[in-house]
Amino acid sequence: MITLITSSVVFSQEMFLKSNLDGLSIDVGEVFEPSTYVESEDGKITTCPNLIYYNKNGALNWDDGISVNRRRGTIRGEKPGKHKVIALCIGLTDSRLSRDFDVTVNYAKAKELSVSLNTEKVYVGSYVPLSYKITDDYGFTRYDANIKIKSDNNLVAIDDLNNVKAINPGKTKLIISLDDVETSISFNIIKNPIEQLSLTSNMSTARTGDVVTFNAKAYDKKNKLISDSPIIYSYSGESFDKSNTASALINENGKFVAETAGKYLITATAGQRSSSTPLIVYDRGIQREIVNVGSGTVEERHTSDFWVFEGVDGGDYAVSGTWGADGTTYFWDVTNPGQLKRIDSIKVDARTVNDVKVSADGKISVISREGASSRKNGILILDVTNPSEVNILSEYTKNLTGGVHNVFIYENHIYALSAGQRFYVINIDDPKNPYEVGMFEIGEEGQAIHDVWVEDGIAYTSNWKHGVYMVDVGNGIAGGSPSNPMVISNYSYESGAHHATFPFKSKSTGKFYTVLGDEIFPQGIDVYTTNETAGFLHFVDFSDLNNPVEVARYELPGHGSHNYWIEDDVLYVAMYTGGVRIVDISGELMGDLFRQGREIGHINTGNPNGYIPNATMTWGAQLYKGHVFYSDHNGGIGSSKVLPIKPDNSRINEYLTRPRIID
Amino acid sequence: MARYIFLLLSFNICFSQQYNLYVASESDDTVSVLKFDGESIVETDRITVGIMPTEIEGPHGITIDPEGEHWYLSLAHGSPNGYLVKYSTDNNEPLSRLELGLFPATMQISPTTGLLYVVNFNLHGLMKTSTVSVVDPLYMVEVTKIKTGIMPHGSRISKDGKYHYSVAMMSGELFEIDAMDLSVNRILSLDNNNNLRNAMHHSKIKPTWVTPGPENDYVYVAGNGSDEILKVDLNKWKITDRIQTGKGPYNLEVSPNGKYLLASIKGEGKTGVWMLDDLSFVKNIDNSGSVSHGIVISPDSKYAFISLEGIGGDPGIVDVISLDRLKVVSSVEVGKQAGGIAFWKMED
Question: What's A92's domain CATH number?
Fold first, then answer.
C-alpha cells in the first residue's frame, strides 16, 4: 500500500519542457537543432521519446517564418520577425506536454538602399516626393527600417517624419543611411518660374457624379507655357444643404467629381503659385418613381437564380431555381408582368438548383445541381420550347460531380463550373448527347472560381482572390475557341472577394469596363437575425486590356452586392438585404457612385407571403422588355417598372393628417 | 404491488442513461445535438455552421476530443479549400477555424498524441494524390500534411493511439501512419495493384472506410465498390478474410465490447451486423430512410446510432439501433444529408 502511494506521488509530479529554443535568435537561412528535455519538479531530467516541433502564429494564420525538418529534427529561419515554435512531447505522460517558445529570426543588415525622386522639377516651397527601397542581405524588403536623412546644405528642411521641404533654390544633396549602407540623391531646387497659372474646365456647372476635367497651365513671366511644371489639384466647398458638408474627389490629373451639391472652389498649385476657379454643382436629380408590378411567390422553398426569356411562341417566360431544398425548378409565364404565373416545375435529385440559364433562341435551358444523393451533381439540359411542359433532354455529370454552382449558355455550348475550381465547355449541338470540348483553369495554387459569363466570345470568370480573367472562347482576340480557351487579361483586387462579373461598354463614353462584384458576409451566418452582407461593385476601366484601372465603386452602406445586370448605361444590382438598386452609370465614372446621388431608385423585394415573409434578400436582377425582374432568396420572383416621372413626395405628410384609429 | 411498481420506477429513474451525440447535415449546413434516454432520441439543438449563408459549405466529418470539451467539424467546401472548425461543447459556439485542403472529411484525435488527423478527401477534384492533415487542436495549427493516396477517407486511430489508418478510395490502398513521427508506415494495395502504387486506376474495391478492432491486431475495410468487408491482419499486413455485404458498404464500426462489426449499407438503406470474432453474418437491419451513412456506438455497446442522408428534400435521420434487440428503437429527423456522427458522452 505504501509502495503504491509513493509511486503515485512520484508520477503525479508536474513535468516541464525545457529547451535551448528558449529566447533563441537565429538568422534567415540558419539551421538550428533544438535540444529539448523534460524536467520534473524535483529536477529529474528525462528524455522525451517523441518530440515534434512546429511553428505557430495565432490560431488562424499559417506562419511560414520558420520551417521544420521533421526527419532531421531541425528548424530553419525563413523570414525575419518574431515567431513561436511549439515543442510537443508525445508518449511520456497521459496529459499534454508541450510548450511554445519565442524565437526571433533576425533581419539581416541592409544590403541595398535606393532612393528615387518622383518629379522632374522641385520648386521652392514644395515638398520633395521621394521613394525609398531597402533590401537586406537575404533579399527581403524591409519596411521597419528607420532611415536617417541629412542634407549637405540648408536648402531643405527635414522634419521628424523624414518629410523634405524645398526652402531655397540651389543644388542640394540628400544622404540617406541605414546600418552601414548609405546612398544619396542630388537635385536642383529651382525658383518657381511660374508667373501665372490658368485653370480651365470642360464644365462651369455640373451635377453630382459628373466628372469635370480641370486643366491648369503654367506660364513664366514671358508668358511662355511651362509644360512640365508639377501641379497639385485640390478643392474646397460649401454644401447647399446646411445639414450636409461639401464632399468631392479630385485626382492628380485634375479630374473632379462631387458627391454633394454646392459651391466648390478648385485650386491648382505649383510651389507657391496657385490659381482657383469656382464650380457650381447641382443635385443629379435622376430619381424616378418605381412601382411594383407583379410577384411570383415561392412560399415553400428558398429561391436562387432566375432567367427571363422570350419563348419560341413569342410569349415571355422565366425559370427560377431553388436553394437548400429538394431540387425543384419552376417555370413561369411572365408575358403579363403584372401576373406572374407558375406554369410548370421539375424536380431532380439535388438539394440546390443554384443557377439556371436559357439559350438565346428560347429552346434549351440548363440547370445546375448541388447536393445530389449520388454525389454526381452535374447539369441537366432541358427542352423549354413549351415552357408549360418542360422535358429533361439529358443529364451530364462528367467532371462535374463536385457540384455546379454557375452555368452559362453561349452559341450551343454550356460553360459549367466544376467543384469551384475550373470550368468545362460542353457542346450541345445535340442537346441529348452533350460532350466536353474544352476546359479552363487559371492554374494558380488555391484557384477558386465562382462564376462565368460569356459575351462576344469572351468568358468572364470570377475567381475570388485571383480576380477576373477574360478568356477568349471564340472572340478571336487571343486565338481562343470553346475547345481552346485562351487568357486575354486579368485584374484582381485586395479584398479577394470577387464573386461575379458583368462586362459593360458605356454607351455615353465608349469606354469598356468590367464591373466586378464582391460577395461578403462579414459576420458569417447569424441565425438569430437577418444576415449582415457587405461588399461592393468595382468598376474597372478595361479600355486598355493590358492596363486595367479601377476607377469607381458602387457601395451601398450596410448591404452587400450579389448579381446584377447592365443595360443602356443603367445598373440593376441585387444588393441582398438592400433590394434591387437602380443606378445611373452614364458618363465618365470616378469615385463612389452611391454617394454621388446616382441612384435612380430601389425595390424592396421582400414578399409578405414568401418562404421567409418580408425578409428582403435579393439574389439577382434582370431588365427585360422594360420591366425590372428580380429573384429574392426568401420570396420568389417579381417584376417592377421604372416610371419616367420623378418621385412625388408631396403625399408623404398625408399620413400625419390621416384620422387616428380609435380602438 | 404498488410498492413493487414504485421500486421499478425508482430503479429506472436511478439507472437510466442519457446518450449524447452530434450529427452533421451536409446539405443543410447544420449540426444537430441529440439526446437518447434509452427509449426516445430527440434533437436538443441545431447549430447553423459555415461562413456563407448562400453557399452550402458541406459539414462532413465531426469528432469530439477525448475530454468531451470541444467538437471539431470539417467543412468540405471553401474557396476552394475546406476548413476545420473548433466548437465548444459547453455552448456550441465556434472558437477557431483552420483552412485545410480540398474537401476535408473524416477525422479523429489520438488520445496518445493529442493531435487530430483529418483526411483531405478531395472527392471532386482531379485524381491526384491527396493528404492527411495533422492538426494541433489546442492551437488549431496544421502541423503537417502527409501524402497518402487518391481520395483518402475513413480516418481512424488505433486503440493504443499510436497509428492512424485511412483508405484511398480511388487508388484502392490502405495506409498506416505512425501517429508519433507523422510519416506513412505501411501501404497495402487492396486491389493487389502494387505495380501501380498510388495510381488512379478506379479501384474495384473502392474502399471508403477503415476501422481498427479492439486489439491492435486487425483493421476492417469497407469495400464500397466490391460490396464486401475486408479483414486485414496488421501483423501479416495482408487481407486474411473478406465477407460479402449488401450494396455499397460505406462506414464501419466495431462495438467497444468487441462483439459486433456494423456497416452502413449505403445503397440499400440498411445497417449490416456481423459477429466480430468470426465475421458470421447476424442481420441486416432496415433503416428508417435511405442512403445510410455514419455509425457510432455507445461506449456501453448497447446502442448504435446511424445517420441517414436521404435524397433531395428528405430530411436526414438518425436511427437508434438496440444492439440487444438488433432493431431500430427510435429515430429523429435532422437536417438534410446527415453524415458525420460523433458520440459525445453518457450521463446518468
Answer: 2.60.40.10
